[in-house]
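Researcher: I'm preparing a figure for a lab meeting and need a structural model of a single chain. I don't have an experimental structure, so a prediction will have to do for now. The sequence is pasted below. Please return the structure as tokens so I can convert it later.
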Amino acid sequence: MTTVVPRRQRHEIELIGRLGWLIALRWLAALAMAAFGSAVVFFYFGPGNWGRFADIAILAGGVACYNIVYLYWWRDIIRSGECRERRAQFFANVQIGVDLLALTGYAFLTGGCVSPVLSHYVFHIVFASILLSAEAAYCWAFAGVVLGGIVILAGAPPAQFAITPEGVEVGRVPLMILAGFGALLALSAYLATSIVRRLRRRERQAHDYLVNIQHKGELLSKAYRDLQATQTMQTGYMRRVSHELRSPLSAISSSLQVVAEGYAGVVPDRAADIVRRAHDRVEEMLRLVNDLLALTRARTTRPRQYLEPVSLPVVAGEVLQLLADRAEQKGVGLVNAVPAELPAVLADREGIVQLMTNLTANGVKYTEHGGRVTVSGYQDGQWLAVSVADTGIGIQPEEIPHLFEEFYRTKRGREFQPVGTGLGLAITKAIVDQHEGRISVDSEPGVGTTFLVRLPLEGPHKDEAAAQEEGLDDLDITAPAW
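Model: Understood. Here is the structure written out token by token.
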């Protein structure tokens, strides 16, 4: 997460940056002073006034010279580690003060009270408002009025300019100009400081918001890490418990099968029936344990180190052959509509086999006699799409959002087939997410259901990572999650 720069430090950085911008602007100002001043002198005083031309050139050169000093001073402030803001504020005051003095001399040389550069005092007041406090801006506005007043009262205009309106005393004209000039600078200082004050208030509010957002983001990040740690601990606990249960359950199932088939001696019919029912229950528990282990593996490992080119037509053929007997017993037809020319997808083969098995087995499980399950596939740009469509009992629209939840089974599904763990689709979703794919469902009650899985042909782009729990990938999970 991006760290929010403290307000004082940010103001210091901005102040130093603006001072550098002011130094860069002064180079252009020096050139403009020489060019514009020469044009004004030529227009006001005529082409023969070489002394005034020389004075303007010297003044422009002086501005360029002290700007070189400012440049080194500015770089020294940047390199300094302490009190940079205080030094930068002092530097800003020096720049504005010296510039006002240079502007005053320039106004004298370019016409005095009728000089067109008198309005440039406003720019320096605006600069002071941006760089310094409101109080400092008003102080420099007062200094500008004083310096401009000296130019207006003492700087006589060229002889050819008659600026005295008819009926107005000659002595009052400079005072009138000075009054207008002072009002202009005062209004400029007021407007500039008002705008800057409002902008700085908004800046403080934005900074406070950023600090608040950063704090909340850190809390959310910590909560997310804690949640991940809790989920990892829960998943590890579920894996260990499931793994410990599978061995005794397998032993119990084998023993009950031996007794039920009479290898341990003759068993009365009533006792044999009880043993068979117990064996069926143990098998259900064993399937649940295997599903839990499969779900744990899909959610806590990364397939990057297991990626290999996987042929969808080959996997579809294997899965349909595996489920052929089950489908034949139910009278459900299996259709392989996967084109043989489909490109291979970079994936975890074991995960893809389990994904296809789960979806196809579900289709067989919830399709009535005489129905069919069709497995198809096609390429969609950089994606490989796998579709498993059945003509089964279908799913209610309000139940579709819950299909991929753990242990969830639809109401119609429980009625049609009471036996089931409710983990098959959760495992399928975890495998799809593991491969950075997408899965969608389209279903109509009484008509059928279609599951569409889209996998990136180039495989997941996550970095390689080992299993979060040591030994998780070595578990022998061979039973399909039906």
